[in-house]
Design a protein that fits this description.
Number of strands of chain A: 4
CATH topology of the largest domain in chain B: Anaerobic Ribonucleotide-triphosphate Reductase Large Chain
Number of helices of chain B: 15
Radius of gyration of chain A: 13 Å
CATH superfamily of chain A: ACT domain
Number of helices of chain A: 3
Oligomer: heterodimer
Number of strands of chain B: 15
Order of helices and strands of chain A: EHEEHEH
CATH architecture of the largest domain in chain B: Alpha-Beta Barrel
Helix content of chain B: 40-55%
Number of domains of chain A: 1
Number of domains of chain B: 2
Radius of gyration of chain B: 21 Å
CATH class of chain A: Alpha Beta
Order of helices and strands of chain B: HEHHEHHEHEEHEEHHEEHHEHHEHEEEHE
Largest sheet of chain B: 11 strands, mixed
């Protein structure tokens, strides 16, 4: 089972480290990271394996949203099924 | 592999284009609560709703967090209460309304629909008392919604019910005049009412439905408008194609949420309602889609054609995305709940007559329209009759949700706040239809062949 974490906002030092720390603390294994610049915004997409998660996705989502708020970034955690169902026939 | 473009597109839809699942509505049959003792019936209703829907709100919130999709409303629809009132005809049906209101508060939903009667061919026991009680029920409860079906394609239009509903709508508005006549915003008069509609105020669970079912209503006018804006100057064929593709994505999301809610609540999945449901929020307007197609304002000549295209393309895209489609399915055009409609009405570009034409090609009907407070009950009934006739002849659902703005006139505004929005009082045609309405009787069912 996998989830997608997206981070969108102004680029700054240490974003990847901070988000990865929350992942590690909750048993999320980072499978893939892509980064790009969307217009003038930084966009990072992490695919994480949550099969061995130690906390429910809703709890991790709350933590990452709070982290995002403190850094003025938008962080979303979404189950991968949403993308598979919306973008695949 | 999920590609990053798809991921960012979805995030952008949610963050900037108001993509959401509008409602998860749990349909609960109350047929097993029928009892000649109204107090016992009310106890059974309260217990059953609390037992079945106790986890509905929390489940919706959990899905929102795990999937990252906003689910705006969690609601309940029930068996038309007139069927329960039939067992205790001498008792005041308002007891049922108060019980529904109490149960809705207990489980935390914001609306409960089904204070309803199906009288398209005539009044049965319970129907008459329930309809008479609507003004009191809606003025003394918060979350209860009411609907009355006055016609169908197969049975024609019950003009006695039409005449009655004009008076009921007026009285409901009068009784809630101190709250911007909000009672009338919770009352819908239908022709061809669907039995599985998840959207308020017209939701009820028809007698052909299972004991309990999950129906989901999707939304997303902002997403469709943004997709058309990005496409730029393409031709109409391309416009229809873009709407279809976007509707497919929106509906797939609704289907996923519906299946997940159904699994977690151990309740069968019923349908996804493929609707473009606007809200008063900027960027969540059906009128703005029509304007994006190239109309200076919603209400201009061309609006009916643009809406027909939109409504049809939403269905074509959505049908393939869902295993079961139902409810109202199409584009809603509620005036006070749509920023673009409100603006068009305020500047005089959108009239009641144009709205009536639009309802012949779209999902519902004359929805959330404030009319002058001195509009007679007969005129309201005549508007209902016209709208029901459009539904009856075209084999589609039509509805009327008018709000007589008591003490106000054209140019004044009503403001309900929240999702119900607010908007200007619109002019109605004042020529009297009184004799036609007072005749009573039924309009016979129309021919289904020789169509021209």
């Amino acid at each position: 089972m996998r989830a997608v974490i997206t981070v969108i906002g102004k680029d700054m030092v240490g974003i990847l480290a901070r988000v990865s720390t929350v992942c590690a603390e909750n048993g999320y294994n980072v499978v893939e990271v892509t980064q790009s610049i969307l217009q003038d915004l930084f966009a990072m997409i992490m695919i994480v394996d949550i099969s061995n998660a130690t906390a429910p996705i809703s709890e991790v989502s709350d933590k990452l949203t709070a982290l995002g708020d403190s850094l003025n970034l938008k962080i979303h955690v979404m189950h991968e099924d949403i993308f598979n169902s919306m973008h695949r026939i | 592999m999920i590609n990053s473009h798809d991921i960012l597109e979805t995030i952008n839809m949610i963050d900037n284009e108001n993509l959401d699942v509008r409602t998860i509505t749990m349909g609960i049959s109350l047929l097993d609560c029928i009892d000649p003792d109204i107090n016992r019936a009310c106890d059974k209703i309260y217990d059953k709703i609390c037992r079945y829907a106790g986890n509905l709100v929390r489940t919706g919130e959990d899905i929102t967090k795990e999937y990252g999709i906003p689910i705006i409303h969690k609601r309940i629809s029930v068996t038309p209460i007139a069927m329960l009132a039939a067992a205790c005809p001498s008792k005041d049906p308002v007891h049922f309304a108060k019980t529904l209101d109490r149960a809705a508060s207990a489980v935390g939903v914001n609306f409960i629909g089904g204070y309803s009667a199906l009288v398209h061919k005539g009044f049965g026991p319970g129907d008459y008392a329930l309809i008479e009680s609507i003004p009191e029920a809606l003025s003394t409860t918060e979350c209860v919604c009411s609907s009355v079906n006055v016609g169908t394609t197969k049975s024609g239009i019950n003009m006695d019910a039409v005449a009655k509903m004009g008076r009921v709508i007026r009285e409901t508005a009068e009784r809630t005049a101190d709250r911007d006549c909000i009672g009338a915003a919770k009352l819908v008069v239908f022709c061809n009412a669907p039995e599985d509609n998840p959207f308020m105020a017209g939701a009820f669970l028809g007698p052909g439905e299972p004991d309990c079912v999950i129906n989901v209503g999707v939304s997303g006018p902002g997403v469709v408008r943004a997709a058309l804006e990005k496409a730029g100057d393409c031709d109409i064929t391309a416009v229809a194609d873009i709407v279809k593709r976007t509707a497919f994505k929106i509906t797939r999301m609704g289907q996923l949420v519906a299946q997940e809610a159904s699994r977690r609540l151990c309740v069968p999945f019923g349908i996804v309602d493929l609707s473009l449901a606007p809200t008063p929020a900027v960027g969540d307007s059906v009128a703005h889609i029509l304007e994006e197609m190239g109309l200076e304002s919603c209400g201009a000549h061309g609006t009916t054609a643009a809406l027909a295209l939109l409504n049809d393309a939403v269905k074509k895209g959505g049908v393939m995305a869902s295993s079961h489609v139902g409810g109202l399915s199409g584009a809603f055009i509620p005036v006070t709940e749509d920023a673009g409609m409100i603006a068009a009405a305020q500047k005089g570009a959108l009239s009641l007559t144009k709205l009536e034409a639009m309802t012949s090609v779209c999902s519902v009907g004359l929805d959330m329209i404030a009319i002058p407070g001195d509009t007679s009950a007969e005129i309201i009934s005549a508007i209902i009759a016209d709208e029901a006739a459009i539904g009856m002849v075209n084999s589609k659902t039509t509805a009327v949700r008018l709000i007589p703005a008591i003490g106000k006139n054209v140019g004044d505004e009503l403001n309900f706040g929240g999702l119900l929005g607010g908007g200007p009082v619109m002019e109605v045609n004042r020529w009297a239809p009184n004799k036609f309405i007072h005749r009573g009787g039924r309009i016979p069912a129309p021919l289904q062949s020789l169509k021209n």
